[in-house]
Amino acid sequence: MLTLLLLLTLTSGMSCGQTPAKPNIVFIYADDLGYGDLGCYGNKQIRTPHLDQMAARGMRFTNFYSASPVCSPSRAALLTGRYPVRTGVNGVFFPTSKEGLDTAEVTMAEILKDQGYATACIGKWHLGSAADFLPTRHGFESYFGIPYSNDMTPTPYLRNEGQAAAKANQDSTTYRYTQEALSFLKKNRNQPFFLYLPHTMPHVPLYASPAFRGKSKGGLYGDVVEELDWSVGQVLKKLKELKLEENTLVVFSSDNGPWLVKGQDAGSTGGLREGKMTTFEGGMRVPAIAYWPGKIKPGSVHQQLATMMDWLPTFTLLTGGQLPTDRPIDGKDLSKVLLGKGQRDGQELFYFMDGKLQAYRKGNWKLKLPYGGNAGTPGMKAVAPHPILLFDLSNDANEQNNLADPHPEKVAQMQAQVEAFRQSLGQVPPTKHLR
Ligand code: MG
Predict the structure, then answer these.
(1) Which terminus in the chain has less CB density within 10 A, N or C?
(2) Is residue 378 part of a domain?
(3) How far is the CA of 260 from the centre of ligand 1 (A)?
(4) Is residue 15 in some structural domain?
(5) Domain contains 275
(6) 88 and 204 belong to one structural domain
(7) How much distance in Å is there from the Cα of 413 to the middle of ligand 1?
(8) If you measure from the C-alpha of residue 31 to the centroid of ligand 1, how many angstroms do you get, rounded to a whole number?
(9) Of 319, 346, 373, which residue sits at a domain end?
(10) What are the per-10-residue average pLDDT scores of the chain (435 residues)?
(11) Alpha carbon of 184 to ligand 1 centroid (Å)
(12) Same domain? 335 vs 397
């Protein structure tokens, strides 16, 4: 009997060793958080010990890009691995919009759900709030949160496809999302899961819980970011308690750069030029941290280009899923980068705003196409017109030194590459109706 028991224990142990459990994925998204807002990205005022530790024990990216300088297209690109222009999500949806991310798109939630993952979206969706386009129609088994930006009205909490509250008490939004996230982790501890946690904060209007209000040196904005950091700490603590830490990849990032026109209520680009709504670096270069104890080498800093679209192929590959083969996927696999086994394939990014291709980065060179300028609105900072610009980001990340004149051959070469990419896009879908 004892031998039999011993044998059973051994074989079950072996089979575990032979077929390791599929890794869990937790993706935490901040809204409008700037490149310079976290301690581990050089911020001296706002305390972010949990994110700093996540970076110290994981991997921090220094040339990581969202696929758009505004909310909805950035999210569409994250979830589909495709440039926003391919999905027609070229601008920001409003509560009145009858359209959203097309259900014919394949999202990372669908890919993971097909493999038996429990999937949840908790937080800001912003890919269409009409029933046909909610998270539950895009591969998420459950949803809780404010379905779009918190400066749009009304601001209800939805639970799945129904209303959970007519008006969210935004003082406790970060807290509520955190509690929902912790219960999801606990409930799904015994099966693979994908938790997508797109926070409403620190998008304006800013709100913090009483426990955080007035506590930071960075004003209300700092309070809000410190509460987000607390939330990240809660998630990591729960994973550790549940003994899931070593089988869970946690990623933290931001959907776009800071909304500078909001002054005191906006974040910091850490010196990068311009911010949200522009294709200068401040609009699209964002913090990104990946954490996976035992898999990602502690203290790694990845300085090569990587993008928000990369997570879809990365998660698919790490979990043994299938990438769609009937459509272009623009993201590149980062699994070798994370595991320290190789490089990302390619070093290019096309920067879009409102469906228009405005800039192109290849290696350390960035070409910014001529821009007619924007006089500014209450929601948008004025941006001066500019001719064609060429920057060497390796020593001019802040885009101050235009090298177009001394490097006409580089300009011409990159212009040709932009044109080739434009051609390769072919017929793109019409822009979704946003209002
Ligand atoms: Mg945003």
Answers:
(1) N
(2) yes
(3) 12
(4) no
(5) yes
(6) yes
(7) 33
(8) 4
(9) 346
(10) 52 48 96 98 98 98 98 98 98 97 98 98 98 98 98 98 98 98 98 98 98 98 98 98 98 98 97 98 98 98 98 98 97 98 97 97 98 91 95 98 98 98 96 93
(11) 24
(12) no
How many angstroms does the Cα of residue 315 sit away from the middle of ligand 1? 23
Of 179, 85, 114, the closest CA to residue 427 belongs to: 85
The CATH number for 391's domain is: 3.30.1120.10
Amino acid occupying residue 269: T
Write down the residue that tokens 């935490």 correspond to: 28
pLDDT score of 5: 54
Instruction: Please give the structure tokens belonging to residue 7.
Output: 């044998």
Whether the CB-CB separation of 251 and 310 falls below 8 Å is answered with no
Which residues lie below 8 Å from residue 345, measured CB to CB, with a gap of 6+?
A: 332, 333
Q: In angstroms, rounded to a whole number, what is the distance separating the alpha carbons of residues 347 and 337?
A: 13
Nearest to 29 by CA among 182, 342, 254: 254
SS3 380: strand
- Identify residues whose C-beta is under 5 A from ligand 1, the ion: 31-32, 71, 255-256
pTM, full prediction:
0.95
| Set 50, 126, 138, 302: catalytic member | 126
User: What is the CATH number for 100?
Assistant: 3.40.720.10
Position 378 scores a pLDDT of: 86
Of 308, 326, 346, the domain-final residue: 346
Q: Could you tell me if 222 and 357 lie in one domain?
A: no
- Which listed residue (16, 40, 50, 71) is catalytic? 71
CB–CB of 220/170 below 8 Å?
no
| 278 and 360 both lie in a single domain | no
Query: Which 3 state secondary structure label does DSSP give 144?
Result: strand
Please tell me the distance between residue 229's alpha carbon and the centre of ligand 1 in angstroms.
Answer: 17
Domain count, the chain: 2
CA distance 297 to 351: 30
- The pLDDT of residue 159 is 98
What spacing in Å lies between the alpha carbon of 204 and ligand 1's midpoint?
10
Q: Are residues 164 and 241 in the same domain?
A: yes
Whether 50 is catalytic: no
Scan for tokens 């950035």, then name that residue: 74
Residue 237 falls inside a structural domain: yes
Query: Where in the sequence is the domain holding 187, given as residue range(s)?
Result: 21-346
| Angle made by CA atoms 235, 342, 398, in degrees to the nearest 5 | 70
| Same domain, yes or no: 308 and 365 | no
126 classed as catalytic: yes
What spacing in Å lies between the alpha carbon of 240 and ligand 1's midpoint? 30
Residues 135 and 284 in one domain: yes
Burial (CB count <10 Å: 0-12, 13-18, 19+), residue 387: exposed
